[in-house]
Amino acid sequence: MRAASSRFDDKIALITGGTSGMGLATARRLLDEGARVVITGREKTRLDAAVQELAAGDRVLAVAGDAANLADLDALTAAIDDRFGRLDLVFANAGIGAFQQITDVTEAEFYRVVDINFKAAFFTIQKALPLLAEGGAIVINASFALHKGSPGAALYSATKAAVHNLARTLAAELAPKRIRVNSVSPGYTATPAFEAEASEDVRASAVAAVASGRIGTSEEVAAAVAFLASDEGAYINGQDLLIDGGLVNATPAAMI
Length: 256
Ligand SMILES: NC(=O)c1ccc[n+]([C@@H]2O[C@H](COP(=O)([O-])OP(=O)(O)OC[C@H]3O[C@@H](n4cnc5c(N)ncnc54)[C@H](OP(=O)(O)O)[C@@H]3O)[C@@H](O)[C@H]2O)c1
What we know:
A seven-stranded parallel sheet has the order 3-2-1-4-5-6-7, with helices on both faces. The chain contains eight helices and seven strands, in the order E-H-E-H-E-H-E-H-E-H-E-H-H-H-E. Strand 4, helix 4 and strand 5 form a beta-alpha-beta unit. The longest helix is centred in the middle third of the chain and has 22 residues. It is an alpha/beta fold and 256 residues long. The structure holds NADP nicotinamide-adenine-dinucleotide phosphate. NADP nicotinamide-adenine-dinucleotide phosphate binds next to helix 1, strand 2 and helix 6. It comes from Nocardia tenerifensis.
């Protein structure tokens, strides 16, 4: 259903990792506000299910591929060029959580996490740039973890710090094309990834650490991404926006 607001009429948005969680919610949000949307994911069956759920006909293009694979990214941008001829918005969202003590991280695990959380965002943007229209916007999905040290998050946090730094650097580098680049940093968010990884105990301690007293939703992240990507965010550039219920900046009374 189309919302009353149509901030993204005539806009074309690429969302990597659009088959579930925040990527899927952002696709839904941008479609509701008038955009045409390209979603990606590794498996065709999951993409088919997402397309069915979004129910927006030919306003959705789904392209299967690994966001960290440069040949797949070339195929993705060729498909976008073929169908739409340009892009206005990129949400480099595909990523994974990975939590181990530094002593347990193997070299293979290091590259697995760096590939999807950093390399994928870096080359998604590089490959999308020739299609990205002047005045476009890029948002990268980082994490609250870049603002706060937690045990077991050495590798994950470093990849998220890297993508925020990428956003800041590209905000400067792409300014001549009037392309804004920002990142979002979700806190604990109820997505399939979080639900699969978080035990009852982890969830309870997560809620206890959040000043707002609850886990966030994918829709709340989607609303922030839409704001940053829209003209309402026109003067926001090189920023990271925490969407975390106060997790990083506000200590719950019970924890003092
Ligand atoms: N959930 C949280 O609490 C939380 C907090 C802070 C930050 N984040 C970040 O938010 C982003 C989205 O996470 P989420 O929680 O929404 O997870 P999710 O529900 O598991 O969704 C992840 C998406 O990324 C896609 N993906 C994963 N690896 C990929 C690859 N190599 N190539 C292409 N697509 C790939 C998945 O698609 P397929 O599996 O279909 O390929 C899926 O669409 C991630 O960058 C994550 O680090 C999450």
